[in-house]
Every structure is written in C-alpha cells, then in structure tokens.
Amino acid sequence: MVLQLHMSTTQQKAPVHNMDQNGSNNSQRIPNVNPSPRISRLADKLQSKVCSFPAKELQVLGRDGPFHRERTEPLGTTQVGKQQMQLVDTPEGAEMRDCTFLAHDPRFCSIIGETPQIFRIAHKDYEFAHEGPVWLPELHRLFFVSNRLGNQETTDQRTELWTLDPETLETKEVVPSQPILTANGATNWAPSKVLVEQQGHKQVGGALFSLDIATGEAELLLDNWNGLRFNSPNDLAVCNCVVNGPSVFFTDPSCGLQQNFRTDAQLGEYVWRWDLRSGSVQVAADGFVQPNGVVLSPDGRTAYITDTGLFRPETRTSPHTIYAYDVVRTEDSSFLQNRRVFAAADCGIPDGIKVDEQGNVWTGTGEGVAAYSPGGKLLGKIAVGEVSNMVFAGDVLVMLREKEVLAAKLAIRGPPLPGMFEQVS
C-alpha cells in the first residue's frame, strides 16, 4: 500500500467564510487552509461574558481561614474562610459563576477578541457528541463520534458516527460499509475522508480506518504491531514534517479494559508512530498511566500528549498532565524526545488537545476548555462545563459536550488542516 499527499482545492485556494455575530457570511478570495464555517441564525446564543482573573488575585485564598475545593469541580466552587463562603467575587465585582470567558492573562483577551460569542449548534437527549471532531470544509460538515452507548458495565457497548452542518444545524448519522468497533479519535485524511480509530471490542483489537463520510466507505489501514493487537487507540495526529515522508502519531491506552468493552490487552500504555510510506510501526513514547490526546505544534517540532491517569478511580493522584516532546527527525524515522511537563489541568483531566495558528495549546477539561501559551502558561478558560474534545474550524472553536455541540467565535484561527492522504496502487 502506498499513500500520496492529496491537496484539496480548499487547501489550494478557497473562499473564506467569516461568521459575524448574526451569522452572516463575508467571503473573500484569499488562500486559506482552514476556512471558517457559517453558523445558522437559528443556533442558540449562550452567555458569553468575559471576566478577568489575574493570577496575583488568586495567590492567597486562606487569609481568612482554610479553603477547600474538590478536584473535579471548577475554581469558582472553592470554599474559603471560616464561614466557608464560595469563591465568587472577582476583582471587578462580578461573580465567577456568571463568567464564560475567564482571562488569567491579558493575552487571552486578544485571542478571544472583543466580542466572543458562543452558540449551541446541536443537542440530543443522550451522549452523542464525545470524541474525534474533524472539520471538513469542502463538505461544510463536522464529523464526530458519540460516547460509549449501551450497557457500560458489560461488553454490550457501541458508538455512533455523526456529521453536523453548522449552517443548517442538520445532524446525520454515518453508517460505515464495515464495522468500526467502538470508534474514537479521528482527523482529516482527504477532502471527504477522515482517518478514524477503532478501539476494538472484546477480543478484536484496535485499528485505524479510512472513512468516507459522504459514502460511508470504510477501509482498514492498520490493525497490529508485528502480530500483536493494539489496545484501544484514542487520539491521533498526522505529521507532514518527517524527512522520509508523512507519519501518524497515535495514543493507545488500555481504556478498553477499564471501560469493559475489551477483554484483553497485549501492549503497554504507548504512543505509536506509523510511517505511511514504508508501513513501519514503532513505539514513539511510553511512561504513561493513560496516554490520551495528542497534537503537534503548527511547525511540527513539538508534540503535546495528555496523560489522563487520574481518570482511573484507583489512582486519584495519578497524572492529569500535558507533556511536551521534541519531534526529532532522521532519514529513517522520527522520535519523540526530551519529555517535560507542559501543564496540568486543575479541574478533572486534560482530554482532547488542539493548537491554534500561534501555537497556543487548548485542551478540554472538567471546567470547559483551557488555553495555554506555547510556554505552558495558563492564558484563560472557556467555562461552559465539561468538554471532552474540540476542533478549530477556522476561527470557530467547536466543543463537544456529550449531549450538545457548542461553537465559539474567536479572534484566533486554527492551524492549516493536516495533510490529506489517499491510497494509490
């Protein structure tokens, strides 16, 4: 199997759709590799108040007595002082619980813009929006995967695959031509295709599929390492920056065992690299309790990987951490080296992870979405409640919140979409 880089017409030159607060479309013919969607005027507008929370104002909380906060609750729930009053007063006199955009650094305000706005663009009465969000601009559609549905105490579990048109708010289920068992992470692959991960089911291991969301045609691309089955692949990132050709980095935690849909695991808690030209698969990084999200910096020189070990109930002090690695290239391969702590989530775990065009790192947490500078400093948060995964569609940050999909119109844009690949004989 040989794969070649496919540049879509959108990547070469396409109209840019800039969404204003009324949902109008201001198009201009300029080169763009990640155009913004239009958002329906029928989408619900949500509270979008911006508040400033300078770090110095939060340095000391116990001057009037002890304070307490649960690890899975937002900062605003901290109980302080002898009367155990909730931490609600901000330097501006507002209440933290009334604020959606929390600026911990002045740079956050320039990133979100003067009038950031959040829209609800889809909702259902069950957890249909959890994982693998992908923006496919040529189809004007978002792709994503549901949470595990069925009986989560047994192996009787499944997932659903969905597309969403932000302009019409239409959701449509995608039915693959062959089963993708307990689907999970995904990324761009071709103009109408995504590269989507199978976590597996019972004795069937993890795998990577190419899926055409327009036709449902699914093709199995990778399902083993030297005859050993993958555990339950979670997230992936395409790298076009390797000397000898493109690669895919993907995380492979043993979530299937903890979540009851897999009955065995043969490999460690690894991050893998798959060479698309040679077919070679090799361990790129280890040392995780539970590797989860993975993303590359816009220049491809740094990889960010989340460890969500805290998710496991028996290890409450395990990592809730983002690690950074240097992507080191050679003629034969590429390696992840010089591991260091980049940041840690203060509410829940850092789940899905993305970068913007300036290299800022965004991750879903129990509070919403947290944004960090390339140096690991917390810039601010979008406090909409727990967010599992997100994706940049131009200057629109799409957030998956299990039973709803939100879209935040910002001043920053996402990076160019990943390189797109198609099989050739």
From TrEMBL:
<dbReference type="InterPro" id="IPR013658">
    <property type="entry name" value="SGL"/>
</dbReference>
<dbReference type="InterPro" id="IPR052988">
    <property type="entry name" value="Oryzine_lactonohydrolase"/>
</dbReference>
<feature type="domain" description="SMP-30/Gluconolactonase/LRE-like region">
    <location>
        <begin position="131"/>
        <end position="396"/>
    </location>
</feature>
<protein>
    <recommendedName>
        <fullName>SMP-30/Gluconolactonase/LRE-like region domain-containing protein</fullName>
    </recommendedName>
</protein>
<dbReference type="InterPro" id="IPR011042">
    <property type="entry name" value="6-blade_b-propeller_TolB-like"/>
</dbReference>
<dbReference type="Pfam" id="PF08450">
    <property type="entry name" value="SGL"/>
</dbReference>
<feature type="region of interest" description="Disordered">
    <location>
        <begin position="1"/>
        <end position="35"/>
    </location>
</feature>
